[in-house]
Amino acid sequence: MKPAKKIVLTGIIFVVIAAVLFWVMLPPINLQAQSFYMWLFFSLLLTALLTGPFMRRDRQSRFDTQFDPRNPASFFASVFGSRQETMGKGRFRLSLMTLAGAVILIMLLCHVLSLDIFHAKTYANRIVPVDGEAADLPTSEDVDHISLMDTDSARILGNRVIGSLSDVVSQFEVSEDYNTLVCQDKVIKVVPLDYGGFFKFVNNYRNGTPGYVKVDTQSFDATFVRLEKGLRYTPNGYFFKNLARHVRLMHPTAIIDSARFEIDEDGNPYWVNTVYGRKFLFGGDVVKGAIVTDPYTGQSDYYKLADIPDWVDIVFTGNFTTTLYDSYGMLRNGWLNSVISQKGCLKTTDDFGYLAKGKDIYIYTGITSVAADQSNLGFIMVNARTGDCTYVACAGAEEYSAMSAAQGALQNYGYRASFPSLVTVDGVPTYVMVLKDTAGLIKDYAAVNVTNYTIVSTGASLDAALADYRTLLKRDNIAVEEDEENAVTADIVVDRLSLASTGGDTWAYLITADDTIYKIAVAADERVVALEAGDKVTVTYAAVRAEDEVIPLMSLTIR
Predict the structure, then answer these.
(1) pTM of the model
(2) Of 206, 360, 539, 541, which is the most exposed, with the fewest CB atoms less than 10 Å away?
(3) DSSP per residue, 132-178
(4) Neighbouring-strand partners of residue 357
């Protein structure tokens, strides 16, 4: 074969192989993406292996050399031909293999040059926290914006609501990727439906999946939202209906992460991919913007970070946010300090949660020293859309210690605590969380003081837990601001009194003639144990409460 024909044939084979691998690997055509170099490497390597048979100098069969069992080297000769026969193809193959090796070496060199040892300050300065205070945290009064439900509980409710829809459950399944959003001033979790398999995709791809599940994190109501126009582009779709492939073809150079499902204020669904840039070579990832894709039409638009629509809630993911702060906390005083003396080095705790404040979702996590202890120095709150970071200094228990304290308050029941939300109760930083049984059902609520996690209260509702919590704060002389506008004061006559111990505290239950029950910690006013039938007292309690519950008292005055 003439050299020109060899080059043309090799080029055709390379293009075919590269196209097939691009379809499978979906790398960004970007010199700062490692996956681009891997795609190029495998394309060259496979081209070198597959073009060998076409590069001989003569037409002699490659199998003319016979295999001799007594001579192992003859096996290779029988497969690849004699040295003289294969010299031409070997040189050509060697050139391709050398080029593939060069690609890998370039990738490894760029990786080494991108390590934080050479760019400590650049890594550290990707996030710049500003100092805040406890008032920057969401408050307990804004109960609609306290997200207590974890993803496991949401999955149970979502599967239950879909299981009751026979036309849906037979073809589709609920995705595992729930997202926490603020929609119409409520904190919700949403998740789309996925195809139940390849053949179900073939049956339904023209209309797409029919809708999504929405779970209210306060009321725990799960609803299926059926769409007039379905989700035709999904992460588990096939061929050109595969979301990742569609976005890659629309934006071939963008370095993106996995798509997240979100809805706007009108409930219209979209897919959101974060777009990353890099400070240098392969390192120093920063958020450049986001790609928003309509799941029905496939329209895919890129927005710079400052231009992202307000209804988009999550552009900075929790994992990326903690990575940014860990770089800041460890490297701000130099790489050598982070390895040897570790003076002033900080890191995030093992997990993160979501807070809602106004119309935005915030990622929060505790900040602790590099020493392996169980206490926090403070918290960071990062706006998940803009990336603005606020540091709130508040020494106290880290999240898992608070979860253990809440579980210990009701240890006889074996409940497990969800990852807590962080709020202020009358100005006091507090963890609030739900307690679940072994089936994953929510059974109780808990409030745990951040600075002193021995102050724990539980209740059948969030209001009840917070009312008890306020009582404990007063008992321990922790200054609180009374919420007088939402408090009710009443004069009652005690019909009978009962005492009980719960969570290490003794509680007095005041029961009136109409069987209304009020409760207060004995430590708040020990005189309560001396009350008898017919005694008159003035009680103050939170105005908002569920019907037919025990009413936790904020205060009590014996007349």
Answers:
(1) 0.79
(2) 206
(3) E-GGGSPBTT-GGG-----HHHHHHHHHHHHHT-HHHHTTEEE-S--
(4) 360
